[in-house]
Design goal:
By secondary structure, this protein is of the alpha+beta class. It has 26 helices and 44 strands. The protein has a five-stranded antiparallel β-sheet with strand order 1-32-37-34-35. Helix 10 packs antiparallel against helix 16 and helix 14 packs across helix 23. The protein starts with a strand and ends in a 7-residue tail after the last helix. About 5% of the residues have low confidence.
């Protein structure tokens, strides 16, 4: 059975992106999928294109790409109904002249590639061009080129026709015509607009003469060449614009002044007819029009520098409505768009200049009519952008083992398909890639652990509901109804946690006493008791009404799911997707003006919030009780019906903002907050613990070498004895561990939480690993290449004998994966014979000397890495911001990654932040802690170390397994498989699991850069996967260092096994040095060194599992553990073994017959079992370890 785990947080998140400066001019266009894109003339005279390429926002120097040379002076672009673009550009030739470039019939999907020469027409020797105007007709696929006019003065200084030139484009020739003239000598030309009618193509000119404003229409091309007419126009007109009538294929003229008027061709071709008044008292300063077929929006800025729009049908201009959007002082430059998406009305977008001078995208949801404000940005490998809003985590999980004859569901969860809906349009990132969620529903493919991460920005705490209704396990979206499964996962309200925390507000005193998580006052400084009481009453009313909304939505969701199941039975679902319609009747009155009211919160004179009858206007029926908010802005009164999750959250946010608590403060109050001071303290503590452990390890490795060989011999017999005890004496206990015990996990809120998984998301989809650059210290590093080469020779001699039996044993392991019996304890034990244990332990014993040499050298290698600097998206910027510019070294980098989930976990379980260890922990005090359990002069240090180490172990295991899995995926895509056909599904896995805004497409044929350098001769430490994996594994060793020593004459077998487990972990850590550092020096292919790491893992995993199982059963008997604890610990041991088996299968694709076919299955088992271990360690910590702190 497939279930969906969901979590959400209101938080400040971070994405690798740069804002886009508004520059000198910008024009919005629609890309191939009708998403907003933009041409922008930058301040450094470049023509940039910001467009989604491979689902990532990309900035392209379009001038350079198209071969347009010189500094760009001006441009204009028009888009036809079939999406083709016409573009004209003027560049500086020097000496006061310009070149003119015309590019025609460019489709948006080809804009990021080179432009064919036959699509470019160029002219030279024009007077210096300040502005270009191009007609919105002639770009519809016809052979006629659009009309183009050039301004040879700034537009506000044009006083004569000679300062405007008609550029005639005919085939491959371009000519300038400045001989045209108006029939009247103009004193000032105010505005121009292009028009077309039955007589031909021409130009409307708004000009001034003798203090009067007039409009003249002149035909330039067509049957009516040189035809001139002056229609009547209002005396106060300040701007003109045109749009195409979709039925008549003629231009309609719009004039704007004190009134908004329209002119059809019959009206503007006559000197006697007046235009039709659309709206009065509008005080238009500038006009813009956005059109999608019959859908029309007339945008205008006012003399007071506000922005409004008039919405109507092109066929019914007088039946529209006027809506204010941006208040006084906010009307900079704008560029509006209308784009059709799926079913329903077109989506409206507006590019505008934000308060910071960067581009901002306003987007209106066509269903709820609410506007949302987004930054307009492009991906960056070096900078980050804050995103204030919601982060969602949606994961598909299997909560039972499959029955006989069914497919293995565990193997199907990675990279599965989920159909994701939202109650309104959301511009967002899904697993690092840009997209839009909507009511239409879209199939999204999950990453390697079946997860979709959704990040979207909001200007307040409002949001749309999101939910998944269908699951598909194939490599493509379902082709028939039988390919998918209908789920029963309830809709996710991202604001649910926020509202739940606000439910405690009952009075104004509660609000006045409210404090953020930082301890600051939530409300503004001058809020009165009366205002607080009024706000508290409104918040309580809205929170209470939301419960009723949830009941209604749940009922409608049930109906929707019934419709889906009926469609599946009739085989219609896959071919005629059902649009999400459960919110169709929820159109909250007044919601279109919310943006206007939110931006004018300081102008509010009075406001009320009350329960009223909800009446459907056209019918007159009362459909229930709703909340109505009335806001008085002087002589403007706005009434909002709040009857959906979106508008209720909007209303609550507005109330807080009215009291001086904007979104930032709301996040600090009821959202998730990274407590960076605590995280940095934990980071410094982890670095201190790590350095102390390395220093202590260097002192003790010599003593370890003296006893290790004798220990291996003694341990061999103890392991065989333990195996006999396990088989003969504890079958009852083992029998209690069923497949469902291993498959099903207890409910762990941390495992699926946004907060705990935040670092994991950044590693996968934030470009943290794939775009990391590691730089050695300025003085270089001592590579010890000669010593490494000698160790490699010795290692290969000792381990060559083991390779044959490992290949045979790996066949058994593949059988376990193939037969889905990797979690059957009895079946697994049957594979482990005494002869096998003898062979394994003899191999370990023979190689002990080599392993310890590697350990001794490896400690030095790891310590030297501490001074290496790393630069990557997000983490570098956060570190420098939090530490005020300290360089980010590898130790600090890994410690910071571990400290974030560690701090979150520690606070969630104990309610306390980790204690500071920096300045208290040295190699000496660490040694005292391990050898004596006490520290002289600091009695609390041992308990502080233990309190930090346990959650750090959980976090390190979680992060280490992700880096290991991602490394395996990338190596396999890079050429490990001998069969190219098998690369293809793994390539998809790599794209899904490593995609980020910076690197959205992973190409097989191109050697990657930065963190993905994989050449054999490339220094191993420049590969982020290798380096980070080594440091994570080493960190885990130090956190789990056994609190005893090995130089005693007699060691109890339980203590021996604890040290044995730690020693084989140490061996596996050394394997990373063997396979990467030595492999790089010996110039070995990575697939060879990867196989050797699999060999080492395979040798060590058997004794490690048996020792862990023996210890678990011993603790059950000696410590009187409960049966649930016994089962939990046995399951953890089995999961550790199974994770190793999955790794071995995934890493052995070149050497083991049949393994190639099971790479994805092996990787899936590794991920599932590693995740299961994290869950069980969390419960160990929650149920046992933290009790010692109380």
């Amino acid at each position: 059975m497939i279930t969906i785990k969901q979590d959400s947080e209101l938080m400040t998140n971070y994405i690798p992106a740069n804002p886009v400066p508004a520059g000198n001019r910008f024009v919005g266009i629609k890309d191939a999928h009708s998403r907003p894109a933009c041409f922008s003339l930058s301040s450094d005279k470049k023509l940039n294109l910001i467009i989604q390429s491979d689902d990532a926002a990309t900035l392209v120097d379009f001038g350079e790409l198209a071969g347009i040379h010189g500094n760009v002076q001006a441009f204009d672009v028009q888009q036809s109904p079939n999406s083709d673009l016409s573009l004209c550009v003027a560049t500086d030739e020097g000496d006061g002249t310009s070149s003119f470039w015309f590019l025609d019939k460019l489709h948006p999907r080809n804009l990021t590639g080179s432009v064919p020469e036959n699509k470019i027409v160029k002219g030279n020797g024009f007077p210096s061009i300040h502005h270009l105007f191009m007609s919105n007709f002639g770009t519809d696929g016809s052979s006629t080129a659009p009309l183009v006019f050039a301004a040879f003065q700034p537009t506000d200084r044009i006083t004569s026709e000679q300062q405007l030139g008609f550029i005639n484009i005919a085939g491959s020739t371009v000519k300038l015509d400045t001989s045209w003239s108006l029939s009247t000598n103009a004193e000032k030309i105010i505005d121009i607009a292009f028009g077309t009618c039955d007589l031909g193509d021409g130009l409307f000119v708004l000009y001034e003469v003798a203090g009067k404003r007039k409009i003249q229409f002149k035909i330039f091309k067509g049957d009516g060449d040189d035809f001139v007419v002056e229609p009547k126009c209002p005396p106060d007109v300040r701007s003109i614009a045109t749009f195409m009538d979709p039925e008549l294929n003629e231009s309609v003229l719009i004039t704007g002044g004190d009134v908004l008027s329209s002119y059809s061709s019959d009206q503007y071709l006559s000197t006697q007819k007046e235009g039709d008044t659309i709206a009065s008292s509008v005080n238009v300063k500038d006009l813009h029009i956005a059109q999608d077929d019959d859908e029309l929006r007339i945008w205008y800025t006012t003399l007071a520098s506000s922005v409004h729009y008039y919405t109507c049908k092109a066929s019914a201009l007088s039946e529209g409505t006027t809506t204010p959007l941006l208040p006084k002082g906010r009307a900079g430059r704008i560029s509006p768009l209308l784009a059709a998406h799926g079913h329903g009305n077109a989506t409206s977008y507006v590019l505008s200049v934000g308060k910071t001078g960067n581009l901002t995208l306003l987007q209106q949801d066509p269903a709820s009519k609410i506007w949302q404000n987004y930054p307009f940005y492009h991906a960056s490998a070096t900078n980050m952008t804050e995103v204030k809003g919601y982060t969602l985590r949606i994961q598909a999980t299997s909560d039972r083992a499959p029955s006989e004859g069914e497919e293995n569901e565990k193997a199907l969860i990675p990279n599965c398909w989920l159909k994701l809906y939202s109650s309104g349009i959301i511009r967002c990132l899904v697993n690092g890639l840009e997209t839009e969620l909507s009511r239409d529903g879209t199939w999204y493919r999950t990453d390697m652990d079946g997860t979709l991460h959704v990040i979207f920005e909001t200007s307040d705490a409002s949001c749309h509901k999101v939910f998944v209704d269908c699951f598909c396990a194939g490599t493509s979206t379902p082709r028939s109804s039988s390919d998918l499964r209908i789920l029963n996962s309830p809709p996710l309200d991202p604001s649910a946690k926020v509202v739940a925390k606000l439910a405690s507000i009952k009075s104004g005193d509660d609000l006045l006493a409210a404090r953020t998580q930082k301890g600051d006052r939530v409300l503004g400084p001058n809020v009165s008791k009366a205002d607080a009481d009024k706000a508290a009453s409104a918040i309580a009313m809205l929170v209470g009404h939301l419960d009723k909304v949830e009941v209604r939505d749940t009922r409608k969701f049930t109906v929707h799911m019934s419709s889906l199941r009926m469609a599946q039975k009739t085989n219609l679902l896959a071919f005629q997707p059902i649009q999400l319609s459960i919110w169709d009747d929820i159109l909250d009155a007044g919601s279109e003006a919310w943006n206007w009211v939110k931006d004018r919160v300081e102008d509010v004179v009075d406001w009320t919030c009350e329960i009223v009858d909800h009446v459907i206007d056209k019918v007159g029926d009362i459909v229930g009780k709703v909340v109505q908010m009335t806001i008085n802005l002087g002589n403007e009164v706005y009434k909002f019906v709040l009857d959906s999750v979106t508008t209720i959250a909007t209303g609550i946010s507005w109330v807080f903002e009215k009291l001086g608590a904007a979104l930032d403060k709301l996040i600090e109050y009821v959202g998730f907050l990274f407590q960076w001071d605590d995280i940095l303290t934990t980071t410094d503590s982890l670095v201190a613990l790590f350095n102390s452990g390395l220093d202590y390890g260097q002192l003790k490795v010599g003593a370890l070498e003296k006893t290790a060989k004798s220990w291996v011999g003694a341990t061999k017999s103890e392991i065989k004895d333990a195996l006999a005890r396990i088989r003969s004496q504890n079958q009852n206990e083992l029998g209690q561990v069923s497949k469902s015990d291993v498959s099903a996990k207890e409910d762990n809120p941390m495992e699926g939480s946004v907060a705990f998984n935040w670092v994991g998301y950044q590693i996968q989809h934030g470009g943290v690993v794939t775009n990391a650059t590691i730089t050695p210290p300025a003085g270089g590093r001592d590579t010890n290449d000669k010593i490494l080469a000698e160790i490699w020779d010795e290692f290969t001699n000792e381990f060559k004998v083991a390779e044959d039996f490992v290949q045979n044993l790996s066949g058994d392991f593949i059988d376990l994966i193939k037969s889905n019996t990797w979690d059957d304890v009895t079946n697994v034990l049957s594979k482990f014979t005494d002869d096998l244990i003898d062979l394994i332990m003899d191999s370990i014993g023979n190689a002990t000397g080599v392993i310890l040499k590697i350990v001794r050298l490896g400690i030095g290698t790891v310590k030297s890495l501490g001074n290496f600097e790393i630069e990557c998206p997000i983490i570098t910027q956060l570190w420098q911001l939090a530490t005020k510019g300290r360089p980010l070294t590898l130790f600090n980098f890994c410690a910071l990654l571990i400290s974030i989930p560690t701090t979150i976990l520690k606070k969630a379980v104990t309610g306390k932040k980790p204690a500071a260890l920096k300045g208290r922990l040295t190699s000496d005090t660490f040694g005292q802690f391990l050898e004596n359990g006490t520290v002289r002069g600091d009695s609390s240090l041992p308990s502080d170390i233990r309190a930090l180490a346990t959650p750090a172990i959980v976090s390190t295991l979680f992060l280490s397994s992700r880096v290991t899995a991602l490394g395996l995926i990338w190596e396999s895509v890079s050429g490990s498989f001998s069969s190219f056909a098998m690369k293809l599904p793994v390539a998809n896995m790599a794209k899904l699991s490593l995609a980020s805004p910076v690197r959205s497409r992973l190409r097989l044929a191109v050697r990657p850069t930065s963190g993905l350098r994989l050449g054999a001769k490339t220094p191993w430490y420049e590969n982020a996967f290798d380096t980070i994996a080594l440091l994570f594994e080493t960190w885990g060793l130090i956190f789990s260092w056994p609190p005893s020593h090995m130089n005693a004459d007699y060691v109890q077998w339980a203590d021996m096994f604890r040290w044995g487990i730690w020693f084989v972990d140490l061996t596996n850590d050394a394997a990373i040095v063997i396979t990467r550092a030595i492999g790089g020096v010996a110039d070995l292919a990575r697939n060879i060194t990867k196989w050797w790491r699999a060999v080492i893992t395979m040798i060590t995993t058997v004794p490690k599992f048996l020792m862990e199982l023996a210890l678990v059963l011993n603790d059950y008997v000696v410590r009187n553990e409960t049966v649930p604890a016994l089962i939990r610990h046995i399951v953890e041991a089995v999961l550790a073994l199974a994770a190793d088996l999955g790794f071995i299968v995934a890493a052995g694709t070149d050497k083991v017959k049949g393994a190639e076919e099971f790479f994805c299955s092996g990787l899936g088992v590794f991920l599932v079992c590693s995740g299961g271990r994290v869950v069980l360690k969390f419960f160990d910590y929650k149920l046992e370890d933290h009790k010692a702190e109380r």
